[in-house]
Design a protein that fits this description.
The protein is mainly α and 452 residues long. It contains 22 helices and 2 strands. Strands 1-2 form a two-stranded antiparallel ribbon.
C-alpha cells in the first residue's frame, strides 16, 4: 500500500488553493442552511422560547461529538474524507460501509432542497415547491460540475451575502424583541421541560455536527492543512455558537410563540419586513442559506465517493473527471439519490431525525477506532501543531462518544420504533456488505493520508 505522505511531489499539492478565509467560507456556507431556516420553527414547537438555547446546546454538543477530528487535523489530513479515515482506522474491509454512508448523505441534500422549495413558494405562491427543489438541486449539480474553484467562488460570495441578510434580520427583530424570549421563568420558555429542550437539540444538531464532511474533507485542497484545518474547524464552531444563538433569539422573539412554532421563518419575516424588503430578505437570507448548503454538500460528499471509486468499491470509471476537473459522474449519482426523497414528498422532520440517527450509527465505531492513532503514527502524533498528548486525545474520544450517544438517544425518541429499527438495519447491512465486498478482492484500497 502506498502512503501519499511519502511522495511530497504528488499532483495533490498543486490542488491546494484553499486559504483560511476560503476554507472558513465553505464551512460556514455548508453548515448554515436547513437547521436555521427550515427546522428552527419545528424545534420551537418542541421547546418554546428556549429554542435559541437548544440551538446553542446543539452547536456545543455537535462540536464535542467531532472533537477528535479537530485534534486529529493537527496531526494528519486525508484525501477521501470520512471514507479514507474509516479505511485508515477501522481497516480497509470496513471502508465500503462509509461509501454507502456518502450516498445516504443524499438525505441531507434532499432536506435542504425541500426547505428551498418551501421558501420559494412563500415568495411566489404559484411556484411549485417540489419543482423548485428539483431545480436548485440541478443548478448546483451544474455549478459543481464546473470544478472546485467555481464552487468555492460561488460559496464565498453567497456566504457573505447570507450572513449580512441574517444580521439585518436580527437587528430589526431586536428593536421590538418579545421579553419572553429571554425570560427563563416564562411558562412557555421551557415549553416541554428538559425533554423538549433536548428533543429540539437533537433536531438542530443536524446542522451543527458534520465537521468531518463540511470542513475536514477539504484537507487535500487546503494550504498548510495541519495549521489551517484546526483553525477553520474551531472558528466555525465559534461562529455557529454566536450566529445560531443570535438568530434563534431574533426569530422566536420577533413574534408570539404560536406564530412561529412548527412553521418556517417566513411567518416571522412577514411580521418583521414588508413588501419588497420581505422578498429581498427571503431571497438573500433563507434561500441563500439553503443554496450554500447544497453547494458545499455536493462538493464534500463527492470527495469520498470519488476516492472510493478509484479504490474499486464503486465502478472505477465513475471517478472520471470532466475538462474542469470535476467528478461529474459521481455528482450525477448524488443528484439522483437526493432527488428521490423529494419525489416521494417525505416530511422534512422525519428525514432530519433519520439522517441524524444514521450519522450517529456510523460515527460511533469510527470514534472508537481513533484510539489507535497515537500508536499507529507515534512520530507524527508528537509533531501535532496543537502539541497533543495521548491523554488529551483519548479524553476527546470519550467526550465525543458521550455527546454522540446523547444525540443518538434523542434522535431515536423523535422517530417511531419502526423507522429507528430501519435505520439500524441499514447501518448494519452497510457494514456486512463492506466486509463481504472486500473479501471478493475487487476493492484495492490505497492509503491516502498525509502529514505535510
Amino acid at each position: 500500500m502506498k502512503d501519499t505522505a511519502a511522495h511530497p511531489a504528488t499532483p495533490m499539492h498543486s490542488e491546494r488553493t484553499f486559504d483560511r478565509k476560503k476554507l472558513l467560507m465553505i464551512s460556514i456556507g455548508t453548515f448554515v442552511g436547513s437547521g436555521l431556516v427550515s427546522l428552527l420553527g419545528v424545534a420551537t414547537a418542541r421547546t418554546g422560547y428556549s429554542v435559541w438555547l437548544s440551538y446553542m446546546l446543539a452547536v456545543i454538543i455537535g462540536f464535542l461529538s467531532a472533537l477528535p477530528y479537530f485534534l486529529m487535523s493537527s496531526v494528519m489530513n486525508f484525501r477521501g474524507g470520512t471514507y479514507t479515515i474509516a479505511c485508515t482506522f477501522l481497516g480497509h474491509q470496513m471502508g465500503g460501509a462509509y461509501v454507502l454512508l456518502q450516498v445516504l448523505y443524499a438525505l441531507i441534500l434532499s432536506i435542504v432542497g425541500t426547505g428551498f422549495g418551501l421558501y420559494m413558494q412563500s415568495v411566489f405562491p404559484s411556484v411549485s415547491a417540489q419543482y423548485s427543489t428539483l431545480a436548485i438541486l440541478v443548478i448546483f449539480w451544474l455549478i459543481n460540475c464546473l470544478g472546485q474553484n467555481v464552487m468555492a467562488g460561488v460559496q464565498k460570495y453567497s456566504t457573505y451575502i447570507l450572513i449580512a441578510a441574517m444580521l439585518v434580520f436580527c437587528g430589526v427583530s431586536f428593536k421590538n424583541l418579545n421579553p419572553a424570549a429571554l425570560d427563563f421563568s416564562h411558562p412557555e420558555f421551557f415549553l416541554h421541560g428538559a425533554n423538549g429542550l433536548f428533543s429540539a437539540m437533537a433536531l438542530l444538531v443536524f446542522s451543527s455536527q458534520s465537521y468531518d464532511n463540511n470542513v475536514y474533507a477539504f484537507g487535500r485542497y487546503t494550504l498548510e492543512p495541519r495549521k489551517n484545518m484546526p483553525w477553520a474547524i474551531f472558528a466555525t464552531f465559534l461562529f455557529l455558537l454566536v450566529f445560531y444563538g443570535i438568530c434563534g433569539i431574533a426569530a422566536v422573539g420577533a413574534v408570539d410563540l404560536a406564530t412561529f412554532a412548527g412553521k418556517p421563518l417566513t411567518n416571522v419575516a412577514r411580521a418583521v419586513f414588508s413588501g419588497p424588503f420581505f422578498v429581498a430578505f427571503i431571497t438573500f437570507g433563507p434561500i441563500l442559506c439553503l443554496t450554500t448548503t447544497v453547494n458545499g454538500c455536493y462538493a464534500a460528499f463527492t470527495i469520498g465517493l470519488a476516492k472510493s471509486s478509484e479504490d474499486g468499491w464503486l465502478p472505477r470509471f465513475m471517478s472520471g473527471k470532466n475538462r474542469w476537473g470535476a467528478h461529474w459522474i459521481i455528482l450525477t449519482l448524488l443528484a439522483a439519490a437526493c432527488i428521490t426523497p423529494v419525489l416521494f414528498n417525505i416530511h422534512i422532520g422525519i428525514l432530519t431525525s433519520a439522517a441524524t440517527l444514521l450519522i450517529s450509527l456510523f460515527q460511533i465505531p469510527l470514534l472508537i477506532s481513533f484510539w489507535r492513532l497515537p500508536k499507529m503514527f507515534p512520530d507524527q502524533f508528537k509533531k501535532s501543531t496543537l502539541h497533543l498528548t495521548v491523554t488529551v486525545f483519548q479524553a476527546s474520544i470519550v467526550i465525543a462518544m458521550m455527546a454522540r450517544l446523547l444525540i443518538t438517544y434523542y434522535s431515536m425518541r423523535n422517530l417511531t420504533w419502526t423507522t429507528a429499527a430501519g435505520g439500524a438495519a441499514v447501518a448494519a447491512a452497510s457494514f456486512v456488505f463492506s466486509y463481504f465486498r472486500y473479501r471478493t478482492g475487487v476493492p484495492k484500497v490505497e492509503n491516502s493520508y498525509f502529514f505535510d
